[in-house]
Specification:
By secondary structure, the chain is mainly beta. Strand 52 (about 645-650) and strand 53 form a beta hairpin. It is elongated and about 185 Å long.
């Protein structure tokens, strides 16, 4: 560009500037200070210099005053956008850069900040900045409690992260509930180190506590994890009590105080009692103070007595006991245990006892003492009563009390005697059985003249007179269930005074009377299991009734023997033998006398017969026996003249039993050949009794005057 052009350009620019100034002066109204054409300042928010949990530092700048003086500048802030200069931190006036620190903020919160500047025209703002304050808290770990006793413990903490704010305090908070805070019990650390410890005091014994380390700064309090511990009892620690030696009246024991606990042991010793709940409130032996082993001798004890003992130690926190031990002092008297009573039968009872300890000296006597009493509670037999002696010594001894009385209460005790005296075992009381036991009757039905036999351990009655009419009923009695039941009737109608003999499962019945008193030769067998009657060829001898019969086994053959009986006009002495295998009759040697009724019984290969009626008003007192082939008879014995008419009998063991018309039972000892009068039945049982063996017991019943069945035990008929 040439010089002339440059000159024109300059003149034009000068004109424009002059025109702009003139126009501005013409538009700007009058304002205080006589400033014309002013605007709000130009300001910017430079940057966030720093921030923490409670403080934010921000810089800014006033770039232009815009025609009026800047009277104030700074930083304004708030929790919502946009912010105004309601909350502000001034930083001077005029143009230029500045920095302001906003304090008292909340941790972990969003804040909005910007610079501001004020002149006469108004307030101008810079850009808005957003800042989130930091947490402001640190991290502390709780140390596990240590040095724990009854009333104190030591714990502490380690500050792992301090946090941005100044720490005000640090320490432990604790209590009996989980997660304690500084609102609970607190102990502060006197140190300002990252690692600190504190002692907790005034604690309660045997109590569970929770403890946490804490750190407090201006922002707040932060905690470590919650740890637990249990305070001790504070009592001493004591070793198990040992028994060194025990004698009749004394015992030596030993124990040890291992530690005193949280206070000095002021007393120690051993307490003892006959009760398992033993304490210092019982008898006690005190043995010094402090820790260490100690021993004591307990004196003035009872002999043969069980004691319980514990050692103990005492300090200000209380009494600590050891385990409880049990010991028994030695015996002055013998120790007798286990009085034995068993096998009460056959007029005897097995008795005995056990001498487990001889005591102070050897046992010089032992045995059973016994007495009779209706008051077993108050009657403890002694050696001043009845005594059954055994060989002296220790151990088990047994024997038998014999000739016991039926239906009596016996009190029995084992005893043993040494030079000191006599001791006893426990008392045992038992009642002897009855000689007679009343069984069930058959519906109160009187049944005289029935044929009776036993099979399969049950009793059977066939026919008989129920009054004026003969019956053909068959009745079965089960002694085990004590129950009667009917069986299949005799097939030929009512019969009375039939003769019966039986094997184990089969019965044979012959003769008897047909109403109104006509004898017959009928012969039938009854299969018990099948409940079946089978007709057999008629009896080949004279028709008869009231004959007596028995069976005898010889090798593989069982014979039935029928002796005597009555016809219409005569009393018979015939003896007939029936082969149950060949089913044949054979008449053999006659019986020495004619008789009906009485007994015919067998034992092994011997038959006992006799004691029957020789007329309507007389009977024989003679009992005959025959052995082998039953070809000869000899007189065995004479029943005492006192005996009445004999209707039936049974053999048990080595004795023969019969019952007479006066209800008296007579015993004949086959080996000793001695008659003994036994007991007398009570009640209306006179005449016509049946006596049967069932389950090795004798049963009496179904007489002319009573339907009762009576179990008779000769062993208890003393």
């Amino acid at each position: 560009m040439d010089t002339t052009s440059k000159l024109y350009t300059r003149l034009f620019l000068s004109f424009l500037i002059g025109l702009f100034i003139f126009q501005s002066c013409m538009d700007d109204p009058s304002i205080p200070g006589e400033i014309f054409n002013a605007r709000t300042p130009e300001v910017e928010t430079s940057s966030v210099e720093s921030y923490s949990a409670t403080t934010i530092t921000v810089s800014g700048a006033v770039l232009q005053a815009n025609g009026a003086e800047v009277t104030e500048k700074g930083i304004c802030w708030g929790t919502s956008s946009p912010v105004s200069a309601v909350n502000k931190v001034p930083a001077g006036n005029g143009l230029g850069s500045f920095t302001a620190e906003v304090k008292g903020l909340s941790a972990n919160k969003t804040y909005y900040l910007r610079a501001y500047a004020i002149n006469a025209k108004g307030t101008a703002y810079g850009q808005e900045r957003t800042v989130v304050t930091t947490e402001g808290l640190g991290v502390v770990a709780t140390l596990f409690p240590d040095q724990i006793n009854a009333t104190s413990a030591v714990s502490g903490g380690i500050i792992e992260v301090k946090g941005p704010e100044e720490i005000v305090s640090r320490g432990l908070c604790y209590g009996t509930e989980p997660n304690p805070t500084i609102e609970n019990s607190v102990v502060e650390s006197i140190t300002n180190t990252d690692s600190f410890s504190c002692k907790l005091t005034s604690l309660k014994p045997l109590t569970k506590y929770y403890v946490r380390a804490f750190v407090t700064n201006i922002v707040g309090t932060y905690y470590g994890s919650s740890e637990t511990f249990v305070t001790t009892s504070g009592k001493p620690s004591i070793a198990p009590l040992k028994l060194l030696q025990v004698r009749m009246f004394e015992a030596d024991l030993e124990s040890e105080v291992i530690s005193e606990g949280d206070a000095t042991v002021t007393a120690r010793g051993i307490c003892f009692s006959e009760s398992a709940s033993v304490s210092v409130n019982n008898d006690s032996v005190f043995v010094g103070t402090g820790i260490g082993k100690f021993s004591a001798t307990i004196k003035n004890l009872k002999t043969n007595t069980t004691y319980y003992a514990r050692s103990f130690a005492v300090n200000s926190f209380g009494i600590q006991y050891s385990n409880t031990i049990q010991f028994t002092t030695q015996n002055a008297l013998p120790i007798v245990e286990n009085t034995i009573v068993a096998d009460i039968k056959d007029g005897k009872a097995k008795v005995g006892g056990t001498v487990v300890d001889m005591g102070y000296s050897e046992v010089i006597a032992r045995g059973i003492c016994w007495s009779l009493s209706n008051d077993p509670i108050s009657n403890d037999p002694t050696i001043q009563d009845n005594v059954l002696n055994f060989t002296p010594g220790i151990g088990v001894f047994t024997g038998y009390l014999e000739k016991l009385i039926p239906e009596k209460i016996y009190n029995v005790r084992a005893f043993a005697t040494n030079s000191i005296g006599t001791s006893y075992g426990s008392k045992v009381t038992f009642t002897t059985p009855k000689a007679f036991t009343v069984m069930a009757d058959f519906e109160n039905t009187l049944l005289s003249g029935a044929a009776a036999f036993s099979a399969l351990n049950r009793a059977y009655f066939v026919g008989g007179d129920e009054g004026r009419l003969y019956t053909n009923n068959v009745l079965e009695f089960d002694p085990i269930s004590n129950f009667w039941r009917p069986r299949l009737d005799y097939p030929l109608g009512g019969r009375k005074f039939m003769t019966a003999f039986s094997t184990d499962q089969t019965a044979y019945l012959l003769g008897g009377l047909v109403n109104p008193g006509v004898p017959t030769t009928e012969f039938y067998k009854f299969k018990v299991i099948l409940n079946e009657w089978v007709a057999l060829p008629p009896f080949p001898g004279t028709a008869r009734w009231s004959a007596k019969a028995t069976v005898q086994s010889t090798g593989a053959v069982t014979y039935g023997y029928v002796i005597g009986g009555r016809t219409t006009n005569a009393i018979l002495n015939e003896v007939w033998r029936y082969n149950t295998i060949q089913e044949e009759w054979l008449q053999i040697e006659n019986f020495p006398i004619s008789q009906y009724g009485g007994i015919v019984l067998s034992k092994n290969d011997t038959i006992f017969a006799g004691l029957g009626q020789t007329s309507e008003s007389t009977s024989t007192k003679t009992l005959w026996i025959s052995s082998g082939d039953i070809s000869t008879w000899k007189e065995e014995t004479e029943i005492p003249k006192l005996a009445g008419t004999i209707s039936s009998g049974a053999i048990l063991n080595d004795c023969l039993y019969v019952i007479d018309s006066n209800n008296r039972i007579w015993e004949y000892n086959i080996k000793q050949k001695v008659w003994t009068l036994k007991n007398t039945l009570e009640g209306p049982l006179n005449g016509g009794h049946s006596m049967l063996m069932l389950n090795s017991s004798i049963y009496i019943g179904m007489s002319f005057y009573s339907p009762l069945m009576i179990k008779y035990d000769p062993a208890w008929d003393n």
